[in-house]
Amino acid sequence: MMASRWVTGGMLYSLPSRELIADSVEYMVNAHCADAMVCISNCDKINPGDADGLLRLNIPVIFVSGGPMEAGKTKLSDKIIKLDLVDAMIQGADPKVSDEQSDQVERSACPTCGSCSGDVHRYSMNCLTEALGPVSAGAHGSLLATHADRKQLFLNAGKRIVELTKRYYEQDDASALPRNIASKAAFENAMTLDIAMGGSTNTVLHLLAAAQEAEIDFTMSDIDKLSRKVPQLCKVAPSTQKYHMEDVHRAGGVLGYSGRAGSRRAAQPRREKTCLA
Length: 277
Description:
Elements: H1 2-6, H2 14-31, E1 37-41, H3 46-57, E2 61-65, E3 72-76, E4 79-83, H4 85-93, H5 99-108, H6 121-132, H7 149-171, H8 178-181, H9 184-197, H10 202-213, H11 220-227, H12 245-250, H13 253-261
Parallel strand pairs: 1-2
Antiparallel strand pairs: 3-4
């Protein structure tokens, strides 16, 4: 289904769906007079749609991803290889690959729940929302959907949103609202991370849109300047079969990337107790 969308007019609906999602978030929160929210998203336009919506609403919020699936594994030519859905599509389209091998790869490509196992669009955005700041009390950008720590991540999110809501409505503390977290320096940190991890180019579209919602002067010129200074640190699937998001998490995740790339500013305010600097 996804592959067929890429080569048909259905692809024209992809980016506009982000606006529908942002509008839906705004609609539901305002229609039901919600005081705060927890965004749990995990794929393509849902991540940036939620981000645009929460910046537009500017109420207490925690953003938590659902997590990537484990990388697929199969044995080909007496060698165990890692793979994902992109590999399955490539094998299926290659006339030199037998139907049996193509079926084997397809059955192995998506072994668990979660979004794609590589650093594609949805997981680039999950990592970037962690870098921007509106996340739960813990690193969520690279933690597998099947990881035991996910339960504690969501429990922490529930506790933190109650704390943030009380701080804002009972103590008049606006410091933890999304627009006070997502400053220009935070957007620069997010793009620094994106460049360092070789993330999806879709993130350029989404960060610029989020900056507009946050009323932040962050433009293509800023991205160009960062791209000339920040090195790409490693390749992750689909750029290579060797490493997937599970490997990124074991190597330190978002904080590991950011520490190696160098934060663009001093420590940025965050909803959890750690920072990128």
